[in-house]
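2024-03-11 09:14:02 DEBUG pipeline.ingest accepted 1 chain
2024-03-11 09:14:02 DEBUG pipeline.ingest length=102
2024-03-11 09:14:03 DEBUG pipeline.predict start
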Amino acid sequence: MRIGKYETSEKSTAGTAVTFLMIGIGAGALIALLLAPKTGKQMRKELRRKYDDARDTLQDWSEDARDRVNDAVDKSAEWAEELRDAAREKAAPIAKAIEKRL
């Protein structure tokens, strides 16, 4: 049972929704600013510091890898020389025997 006279609003419901959306966005932004742990300047400074730390760490890893590769190349060269010398020692008697026959 209806009591009173009900009339439809001439305002658009979309306009009301947009108004409440804007109020919600403003309230959210205000709360975010009030609860932000750091200022923009502090955040940029921290991000820069973390970026520099990461770059330094990557550079250290790169230098370490380069040193390890250089060490491995040096050891490989030494091993190749030892192998060559051992092969020459083993082949020397055979070479002498071939020269005698020729």
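2024-03-11 09:14:41 DEBUG pipeline.report The first helix runs from residue 13 to 35.
2024-03-11 09:14:41 DEBUG pipeline.predict end
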